[in-house]
Structures are given as C-alpha cells and as structure tokens.
Amino acid sequence: MKQLLKTLTETFGPSGYEDAVRRIILKEIKPLADEIRVDALGSVIARVTPAKNAKNPKKIMLAAHMDEIGLMASHIDKSGFVRFTNVGGTFGRYTLGTRVHFLNGTSGVVGYDRLESVDETVPMSKMFIDVGARSQKECPVTVGDVAAFERPFTEMGTKLVAKSMDDRTGVAVLIETMRALKSSPHDLYFVFTTQEEVGVRGAGAAAYGIDPDLGLAIDVTPTGDTPGAIKMEMKLGKGPCVKIRDAGMLADPRVVEWMVNTAEKARIPYQREVLLIGSTDARAVQLTRAGVAAGALSIPVRYVHSSSEMVDYEDLTNSVKLLTVLLSKPISF
Ligand code: CO
Ligand code: ZN
Q: Are residue 230 and residue 92 in the same domain, yes or no?
C-alpha cells in the first residue's frame, strides 16, 4: 500500500481537476470490481456485487475523495507575478513559502508583499506565485489555471509524510480493502469522489445516483496529540477512528455501534472520534434523497491541509482490516 500511496500523493488533483488521480484509480481497480462507471461530476463508482447465496444484501456506499486542496490563478500582473485564490481549505499560514505545481506543468514559489512586521500573519491576498517569468506576456500561467502543493512523499519510521494524505490515504485504504475482500453478503459501491474539499459536491451527486441503504466515508481526521493542540482524543498510531460527530454531521448511532462492536470482536485497535472542526463526504451521503444511515472511518492525520500531512502507516493497515471485516459479514440493523 505504501507504493500506491506514494504514487497517489505525488499526483496532482485539486478539486474539479481530479483527472490524473482518477486514471491511477481506474487502472488499480479494474481487476477488482464487477462494474465500473464514472458519473457526470467525475466520481468513480466501482460496484462489487453480493455473493450468490447472500440474503437481503444491503446496498453500501463507501466514499473516499480523490481531490485535494489547491490554488487558482486570479490575476497576472505586468511583471508576471500570479495572484491567486484558494480551491477549498487552503490556509495562508501553510501556503506561504511553499512550492506549487500547476496542472499545465509550471512550477512556482509562493512569495508575499512587504510585511509591516516580521510577526505579521500574511493573508493570501498579499501573496503571489513567482513562476520565474519576467513579464505578463512571458508568464506561462493564465487566469483560471489551478495548482496544488508540490512536495515528495517521505517515510519517517512508521510515520508517512506527504501532501494530499487528505484524502489519498482514504483512496489507498479503499483500494486495498477491495483487494483484501474475498466476498461480501452486501452490494458494495466503492466510490472515489470529486470536489469534497469545496463542499462535498461529488459525494452528494454519487449518493443520489446510487441510493444506498448505508454510507461510510473514509477520510482523515485531525488529532489532538501535538503541543498546544485543541483537546481532542484522536492520536496518530492508535488505530482508525470511528466517527461519532464532526462539525457537519452526527453519525448514525447504529453505524457507530456496528463499527465499535466489530473492531472489539476482531481485536482491531480503534478510537472514538469527536471532531470539533470540519466534515466529510458522509454528511452529503447522510442528507441525500430521503436520508441515509451514515458514518465514517477516519484516519488520524497531523498538519491537515498543509503540504506535509503526517499519518501513521499502522493506522492505514488497521483501517483496511476493520473495513474488510465490516464488509464481510451480514449487518443486523
Ligand atoms: Co480536507
Ligand atoms: Zn478530506
């Protein structure tokens, strides 16, 4: 899974421009699914049909988003410097000084206007991307071009660091779960969604089309285990998190119980997640049509939405284990 994760995180796919990531996923899942389609918003929907003797199969949608946060050129000045806006939750403090890669191949460095003091926090409106051009005419970037952070994948013991761990870890975990799953009593829809970072848009459209009985998002969750962090329970390396709530949803208590009981029976480490900020595709699935029982399995991550998001590899392998057990057995509610 590490090699797959390296490939996925070193590929560029800001919201709405997930093409390169989608191509990798389609290649990986081709031998693992019974049906594959790409919907109008670009989400990949891979179906694994229930085992022949299955009674009352549940239609389960599993969602991991392909897109990542990014930047979009909004103005090129006379000297060839690029002003930009955010695509999704790009924070100023993480953007300054980083390198970016435009989808047209151009690389750039994020600089800033003259500061009033060295302690000043710089808003993105005072930043620009320097692509090395000498004039507007020479600038290889045009208004509307999108970019993402540029940063290689790095291993630090069991910790892995890369851009877009949010949510390429979820994508890798879903693909590995498809590989690990021998057969299921359920009708499974593995969905690799688009445009999560701009407001869970792809997942909403995909869920409407699938009309599932149950929905699970596989996404990252910030932790409370760094100096001065918000007091939250989630830690790196302590297992996948069972979402109970985040800022956008209350997970269905039956889904929480099913996940917790399954983890305990199978002796897979897990954590209880109460997240104070952010949400996931599960919110869009829960609120589609007349409503869907939904929850989420979250992978703990530090420095979310920076160009160096950190995860623990054991949390990924335990996520695959837990998902595989969850999907292998009948569900009683
Ligand atoms: Co995110
Ligand atoms: Zn995410």
A: no
Same domain? For 223 and 139 the reply is: no
Q: Which of 18, 28, 196, 273 is catalytic?
A: 196
- Same domain? For 140 and 170 the reply is no
Specify whether the CB–CB gap between 331 and 262 falls below 8 A: no
Q: Are residues 239 and 141 in the same domain?
A: no
Which residues have a beta carbon within 5 Å of ligand 1, which is an ion?
166
Structural domain for 58, as ranges: 2-68+163-328
Residue 314 is a catalytic residue: no
**169 CA to centre of ligand 1 in angstroms:** 11
d(CA 106, CA 119) in angstroms, rounded, equals 31
- pLDDT over 90 at 115, yes or no: no
Residue 114: pLDDT band with limits 50, 70, 90? confident
C-alpha 290 – ligand 2 centre gap (Å)? 25
Task: Please check whether residue 286 lies inside any domain of the structure.
Answer: yes
Q: Count CB-CB contacts under 10 A for residue 289.
A: 11
Give per-residue pLDDT as tens, 206-263.
999 999 999 999 999 999 999 999 888 999 999 999 999 999 999 999 999 999 999 9
Cβ neighbours for 116, distance < 8 A, ≥ 6 positions apart: none
Reported as a single tens digit per residue, the pLDDT across 255-264 is: 999 999 999 9
C-alpha of residue 314 to centroid of ligand 2, in Å: 19
